[in-house]
Design goal:
Blueprint lengths: L7 H24 L4 E17 L2 E19 L2 E7 L4 H17 L31 H16 L4 E20 L4 E17 L6 E9 L8 H13 L10 E7 L1 H14 L2 H5 L20 E3 L22 E5 L2 E2 L6 H7 L13 E3 L6 H8 L2 E8 L9 E12 L2 E14 H6 L1 E4 L9 E2 L3 E9 L2
Parallel strand pairs: 7-12, 11-16
Antiparallel strand pairs: 1-2, 1-4, 2-3, 4-5, 5-6, 7-17, 8-9, 8-11, 9-10, 12-13, 13-14, 14-17, 15-17
Helix pairs in contact: 3-4
Family: Belongs to the peptidase U62 family.
EC number: 3.4.24.-
Organism: Frateuria flava
């Protein structure tokens, strides 16, 4: 087993040590005058291997520690952190956090989450699957993946294959007496390839990300997928400016839902920097659409029994029959808005966009003529106004069939219109991230090219 990978036998002991340290630091902070305190501590470990053209480029063993303390003197807040768990470093962290708090302005919204909201149920979410792969095995796997991709006629070069085994142990504790322990693994395989020569050169990739290495797609399948995607981009052309239906593939469709998340998250709302300000209870999507948060999905990439403040997570609708059911709030943003935490301090926990019946081919047929987007570039998205304009690449579709690849185009609209104009959600759900969605078909966007 790699020295970088903790065994399942020691993970509970490591968590116990982190929890004991966190509770001790909270006691010491209270002794130093803090009225409340909270600690987040973690240990990340892993193995990362990169292979290119059959040769090893990098091998990295990691073991990183993090320890953050936040103290409150009434409603004055101080935060300090360290990556060194030596007693002197921990004491310095306590001293720094307390010193900062004593000299900051009071913030009426500052403080720990409501003690009545602390999680009390901690089900096994099947997130812990250490991958006992050693360096030689990881290198061999990377070579197999790359060889599978390079074997395809037309592939001319490689940007390399990566194999990553990772795991995290974390503890959150606060002066309410809450101590939450989490352990999770996440492993990944990826391959990036190049096809063609000169000005006609194209690059694409594929990856897989899982909790349990037994769930990986095969090395052959991943290499084939990366090669097929790369070869499909050869002989790309641009398009004339037009308006047409647009189909976002799942890995990009989740980005659209991510823009919704950003617009209804507390920070954007209390700063009044969201185009969906004051939209709770209003229709923002078609009436058949539902988006639900599912924190307890086994092996889910966002699964967890509590948020970053210890607040219990719950199954909860975000969009119900097209209506925005709630915002996404931690305790601080909730207080700023005069609302209650939704258990989302630190982010969302498996946001599931309810899929439709159509697979990808059926969505192409439904679209008829339009654009499939497989890549977006640039940062042209405004949470304040909802304006959306990004570089893109993908495929032009005619009569429900892919006609040719396209590049050097832009796609533009307003997110408000994009959300309202969703025509269908595919059943090709991508489960590699915290937002789980299939392809999303929009009625129209402006496509700019030549």
């Amino acid at each position: 087993m790699s020295a970088a990978v903790l065994s399942a036998d020691t993970s509970h002991q490591e968590l116990d040590r982190l929890a004991e340290l966190a509770e001790d630091v909270i006691r010491r902070a209270r002794t130093a005058g803090a009225s409340a305190a909270e600690v987040a501590a973690s240990i990340d470990s892993g193995l990362n291997v990169n292979v290119r053209l059959g040769e090893v480029e990098t091998v990295e063993h990691t073991r990183d520690r993090g320890f953050g303390l936040t103290v409150y003197f009434g409603q004055r807040k101080g935060t300090a952190s360290t990556a060194d768990l030596h007693p002197a470093s921990i004491q310095a962290t306590i001293d720094q956090a307390c010193a900062i708090a004593r000299f900051t302005e009071a913030d009426p919204a500052a403080g720990l989450a409501d003690p009545a909201r602390m999680a009390t149920r901690f089900p096994d979410l099947d997130l812990w699957h250490p991958w006992q792969v050693d360096t030689a095995e990881a290198i061999a796997l990377g070579q197999q993946i790359e060889a599978a991709g390079r074997a395809h006629a037309g592939i001319t070069n490689s940007d390399g294959a990566a194999v990553q085994a990772g795991q995290t142990l974390s503890v959150y504790a606060n002066s309410h007496g809450f101590v939450g322990r989490e352990r999770a693994t996440r492993h990944a395989l990826s391959l990036s390839l190049i096809a063609g020569e000169g000005d006609g050169m194209q690059r694409d990739y594929w990856y897989d990300s899982v909790r349990d290495a037994d769930d990986f797609m095969s090395a052959q399948a991943l290499g084939d997928k990366a090669a097929q995607r790369t070869l499909a981009r050869l002989n790309s052309r641009s398009l004339g400016t037009r308006q047409c239906p647009v189909l976002f593939v799942p890995e990009l469709a989740r980005g659209l839902i991510g823009h919704l998340v950003s617009a209804v998250s507390g920070g954007a709302l209390y700063r009044r920097a969201s185009f969906l300000l004051d939209h709770a209870g209003k229709r923002v999507m078609p009436e058949w659409m539902n988006i639900v948060e599912r924190p307890f999905l086994p092996r889910g990439m966002g699964s967890g029994a509590f948020d970053a403040e210890g607040v219990a997570t719950t199954d909860s609708a975000l969009v119900e029959n097209g209506v925005l059911a709630r915002y996404i709030l931690g305790s601080y943003s909730a207080r700023k808005l005069g609302l209650e935490s939704t258990g989302n301090a630190g982010g969302i926990h498996n946001l599931l966009v309810e899929p439709g019946q159509d697979d990808f081919d059926a969505l192409l047929d439904r679209m008829g003529t339009g654009l499939v987007v497989t890549e977006v570039m640039g940062q042209g998205v405004s949470t304040l106004t909802g304006d959306y304009s990004r570089g893109a690449a993908g495929f032009w579709v005619e009569n429900g069939q892919i006609a040719f690849p396209v590049e050097e185009i832009t796609i533009a609209a307003n997110l408000r219109d994009m959300f309202a104009g969703i025509v269908a959600i595919g059943n090709d759900v991508d489960r590699r991230a915290q937002i789980l969605t299939g392809s999303i078909l929009l009625d129209r966007m402006t496509v700019g090219g030549q």
